[in-house]
Design brief:
Elements: E1 3-7, E2 11-15, E3 21-29, E4 32-34, E5 49-51, E6 55-62, H1 67-77, E7 82-85, E8 89-101, E9 110-118, H2 135-140, H3 144-154, H4 166-177
Antiparallel strand pairs: 1-2, 1-7, 3-6, 4-5, 6-9, 7-8, 8-9
Length: about 200
C-alpha cells in the first residue's frame, strides 16, 4: 500500500516500502470545547459545545535520499494545504510540526513525525450578473423593464392636493415679485446699537 501526502503547491510525497519509505503510525485526535457555565435544563446542549478542527499525526521512515525530506520541508515552509491518503484519508490539512530523527541505522534517510491540523475553508457565494433579477424587482414583484420604464417616465414631478386656477396662482406669484409691502421701510430708532443703557 502506498501512502501519499499531496500538496497544492509542493507536489506529492509518496511512501512506498523498499523504495522511498513507509508510514508506521497514524493517529487522529478529535476534540470539543464544552461550556463551563451552567446549562438550563431542557436547553439544546449542542448550542454549548464547539467541535474543534481535527488533528492528525503520522510517523514513518524515509529511505533513499533527501527528496522526500526536502518535499516535506517545502510543504511546511510554503504553508501548503495538504491531502493525506493512507489507511485514513484526510483533506485540508496544514503541517503544524515536523520532526526528523537521523540515525546510523538509516544512512540514506531518517525517521520522521509530522503533526497536521485540519483547516476550515470558506468560499463566497458568486452569482453571475444577469442570471438573477435585481433586488428592487424581487422586492416589488414586477418585471425589471416595466419598473425601469415607469421610473424613467416619472421624472421630477410636483404634486398638489388641490387644483388651483391659473389666475389664483398668478396673483399668488405677483404678491411676491412686484407687489407692495405694508411693512416699515426704516427703523423707528435708527441709531440704536443694540446695547441697553439703563
Amino acid at each position: 500500500m502506498a501512502y501519499t501526502i499531496e500538496g497544492r503547491k509542493s507536489g506529492v510525497v509518496r511512501f512506498v516500502p523498499d523504495d522511498s519509505g513507509t508510514i508506521r503510525n497514524e493517529s487522529i485526535s478529535l476534540a470539543s470545547k464544552v461550556t463551563s457555565n451552567p446549562v438550563e435544563s431542557g436547553a439544546d446542549i449542542t448550542d454549548h459545545i464547539v467541535n474543534e478542527t481535527a488533528r492528525f499525526n503520522v510517523a514513518g521512515t524515509i529511505i533513499g535520499g533527501d527528496k522526500a525530506i526536502n518535499a516535506l520541508k517545502a510543504m511546511r515552509d510554503k504553508r501548503d494545504i495538504l491531502t493525506y491518503t493512507g489507511r485514513s484519508r484526510m483533506t485540508n490539512l496544514v503541517i503544524t510540526s515536523l520532526t526528523f530523527d537521523f540515525s546510523v541505522t538509516n544512512k540514506t534517510g531518517c525517521a520522521f513525525r509530522a503533526a497536521f491540523q485540519e483547516i476550515q475553508l470558506a468560499t463566497s457565494e458568486r452569482v453571475e450578473v444577469g442570471k438573477m433579477p435585481p433586488m428592487t424587482v424581487q422586492d416589488a414583484g414586477k418585471a425589471s423593464t416595466a419598473q425601469a420604464r415607469q421610473t424613467a417616465n416619472a421624472g421630477m414631478q410636483t404634486t398638489v392636493a388641490q387644483n388651483i386656477s391659473s389666475s389664483a396662482y398668478a396673483s399668488y406669484v405677483a404678491s411676491y415679485t412686484g407687489g407692495s409691502s405694508s411693512g416699515p421701510t426704516t427703523r423707528s430708532t435708527a441709531s440704536y446699537s443694540g446695547i441697553s443703557r439703563d
